[in-house]
Amino acid sequence: MNRLTAVALTLLLVGCSEAPDTGNPPAGFSCPTSVDKPMALAVGARANVPKPKIPAAVQDLMTGVARARADVTVIRVDGDPKVVFDAPPPPREGNENADGLVLEEHLNAIAAAYRDQTPARAPEADPLTALTVAGKRVGPGGTIALVDSGLQTTPPLRFDEEPLLSAEPAEVAAYLEQEKLLPDLSERTVLLIGLGETAAPQPRLDNRWSANLVAIWTAVAEAAGACVEALPLGETTDAVVSTPGVAVVTPPAPPPPLTPCGEVELGEADNVSFLPDSAEFKDRDAARTTLGQLASVVRAKNQRVELIGRTASSGSVPGRVALSAQRAEAVKGTLVELGVAADRITTRGVGSDWPTHVPDVGAGGVLLPGPAAQNRKVVVKLTCEG
User: Fold this and answer.
1) What are the residue boundaries of the structural domains of the chain, listed by start?
2) Phi, psi (rounded to 5 degrees) for 73
3) DSSP 358
4) Whole-number pLDDT of residue 167
5) Pairing outcome for strands 378-383 and 72-76
6) Check: CATH 3.40.50 for 3-231?
């Protein structure tokens, strides 16, 4: 193979001046990859996401796939994902020079599609459909590289309308599976590149929400049968295009400061959140940090504390009440460990019967992951003496 072949594709994809040309699958991936199997590159080059840059190892893999005469597909990820390149690989010419020339033309055609055809044409963002399309193209054993922020703004995952950033990843995957909306990714490798990276006017995601976004897409792809690996995008830049428009996803607001007297709800935003159908904290250390702040307030003012547990709308009503009471007890136990007198704390559970309960059941009685996560919390009522 002509060395210019690998370099030509790299110049257009990642802007490097050098590219390895080994013809072997690159090392370092935790999931299986093969140059003898098809590969799909699904690219989100649209408003609100930084200019996509393919990691060198992924670029090297794609060059190897093309060189081995396996199919390479390029998919535009916008509100209506489309295949923008699917030309078959050229036949072998029988001699090294001729073979290098036709392969260079093929790689240049891939690079041209990446450069000219991946910028968004349809408004909004639908990476889930892009994964579905890619899964059909590569088949078992193939590799899918999704270069995208992961902030979908079309059904069934409206990150812009539902509090999905704080949802339990496994619950999102279960929801899609129940609705028969998972792509077929069985025996495929999915490389998630740049999830959580944003460009103005989309606000940046802090580390917590970015990590949960990666966890959500990992859970979805794994539930669909894939081996999944998340990779960084590298240096971020402004978006390639500003139109067509993409709805802004508002990250969860930081919690208000604790007040000495009154009522506060401790949930996802405060790190005092619970696993589905469980009184176990999602992150015990993070919950303990928040409850440590509450304990300091209570010890300083010697208030009485009422803890009211709440749940999502799943299970029987008596079961919800019992679970919510267990959640209140879990918070009480931590506060006592942190020095609050047990006799100053009362607990009760109300299940899903509370004025600020968020509607969390969709059509057909399906539990909605984002709203359900918001309802798994404990209300704290602080009563000041006198």
Assistant:
1) 3-231, 262-383
2) -115, 140
3) P
4) 93
5) unpaired
6) yes
pLDDT of residue 300: 83
CB 207 within 8 A of CB 253: no
Which pTM value belongs to this model? 0.89
Mean pLDDT of 9-31: 52
What mean pLDDT do residues 155-177 have? Answer: 95
Find, among 94, 97, 36, the residue nearest to 66 by Cα.
36
Give exposure, 198-232, as e/b (b: 16+ Cβ within 10 Å): bbeebeebeebbbebbbbbbbbbbbbbbbbbbbbe
Nearest to 294, CA basis, from 278, 305, 283 = 305
Residues of the chain above pLDDT 90, percent: 78
DSSP classification of residue 250: P
Distances (CA, A) of 230 to 142, 194, 272, 283: 17, 8, 27, 21
Res 328 pLDDT > 70: yes
Instruction: State the residue for tokens 């891939």.
Output: 110
Superfamily of domain 262-383: OmpA-like domain (3.30.1330.60)
pLDDT at 256: 76
CB 126 within 8 A of CB 77: yes
Burial label for 181, CB within 10 Å (0-12, 13-18, 19+), is middle
Q: Centre a 10 Å sphere on the Cβ of residue 267 and count the other Cβ atoms it contains.
A: 21
- Cα(65)–Cα(48) distance, rounded to whole angstroms? 31
Residues 97-124 pLDDT 10s: 888 899 999 999 999 999 999 999 999 9
How far are the Cα atoms of 31, 222, 303 from residue 54, in angstroms, in the given order?
A: 18, 22, 56
Amino acid 93: pLDDT: 79
**Secondary structure (DSSP) of 313-349:** S-S-HHHHHHHHHHHHHHHHHHHHHTT--GGGEEEEE
Q: Closest by alpha carbon to 46, among 148, 119, 154?
A: 119
- Token pair recorded at residue 103: 């392969």
Residue-level pLDDT at 9: 54
Q: How many angstroms separate the CA atoms of 205 and 210, rounded?
A: 6
Strands (E), 44-177: 72-76, 82-85, 143-147, 153-154, 157-158
